[in-house]
Amino acid sequence: MKTVLVTGANGQLGRSLQMATKKAPSGFRFLFTDVDRLDICDKDALMEYAKSQGVNYIVNCAAYTAVDKAEDDEITCMRINSDAVRNLGEVATAIGAGIIHISTDYVFDGTNSLPYLETDYTCPMSAYGRSKHRGELFLRAVCPEAIILRTAWLYSEYGNNFMRTMLRLGKEQKEVRVVFDQIGTPTYAPDLAGAILSILAASETGNFKPGTYHYTDEGVCSWYDFARKIFELAGLECRALPIDSKDYPTRAARPQYSVLNKGKIKKTYGLTIPHWEDSLKKAIANLLNTR
Predict the structure, then answer these.
(1) Could you tell me which of 95, 133, 172, 200 has the fewest CB atoms within 10 Å of its CB?
(2) Other C-beta atoms within 10 Å of 91: how many?
(3) E-strand spans in 191-278?
(4) What residue numbers bound the domain in which 113 lies?
(5) How far apart are CA 31 and CA 49, in angstroms?
(6) 3-state DSSP call for residue 173?
(7) How many angstroms separate the CA atoms of 82 and 251, rounded?
């Protein structure tokens, strides 16, 4: 029985992993922790916990994700997204555990016109992006055997995310203005959770392949397209109105184009990735069926 420590278990990816592991292959014991149970910024506590539990793998879902707030609170953002990631890498190396760390499209500046490869130049434009990029660098330095999964536009039935915000606004308003010139791919958190479990399962047959990988759902859209599809699938009469990013200023800069090339992870782990519209249908159906 291999033990998997999952940090950030109360976030939308952590909660999606909790649901997914109910159907996970036997042979794994999952320990779901969040800051109230295990503070990953405390390296000594982290080391003691990992050793006492006999941890074989670490899946780091913990992150500071308040992108705009991070511009005024970069110290805290760096502590969680960079320094704590180094702690996890050092602990993983010390105890001989595999580690899967979740990163982001915000490590790129968004000036590409083709989907980003893992080897493309990184140039974060925000405090959040810088913190995640620094976390990647720290992790590679202290734990070269780590797997880094970059994802983008994550949403789920849990927590605060774009889909849930649009569903709320779609009920309250007749029109919602949404930027149309930021392009990417929505990623359903349960799909990413499934990919993580596939990697863990493959690792037990000797296929834990260190490196950086990209994972999002298939397809491409703008936030405006995403909002329209949410309203359509939820049966809401609210209209999405397309606007330029300059007409919706935010504290932190967003990548204009952050489509990620997923060829590497599909080839390495044999993944079949669903299209974002198909996964969105599932998510909205799940929410509507629970109300």
Answers:
(1) 172
(2) 25
(3) 211-214, 221-222, 239-243
(4) 2-156+187-218+258-274
(5) 11
(6) coil
(7) 21
Indicate the length of the chain as a whole number.
Answer: 291
Per-residue pLDDT of the chain (291 residues; tens, 9 = 90+): 899 999 999 999 999 999 999 876 678 999 999 999 999 999 999 999 999 999 999 999 999 999 999 999 999 999 999 999 999 999 999 999 999 999 999 999 999 999 999 999 999 999 999 999 999 999 999 999 999 999 999 999 999 999 999 999 999 999 999 999 999 999 999 999 999 999 999 998 888 999 999 999 999 999 999 999 999 999 999 999 999 999 999 999 999 999 999 999 999 999 999 999 999 999 999 998 865
Q: Does residue 149 fall inside a structural domain?
A: yes
> Is residue 45 included in any domain, yes or no?
yes
What's the number of domains the chain is made of? 1
pTM: 0.96
The CATH number of the domain holding residue 60 is 3.40.50.720
Judge whether 269 counts as a catalytic residue.
Answer: no
* 204 within domain boundaries: yes
Q: Which entry of 128, 155, 213, 257 is annotated as an active-site residue?
A: 128
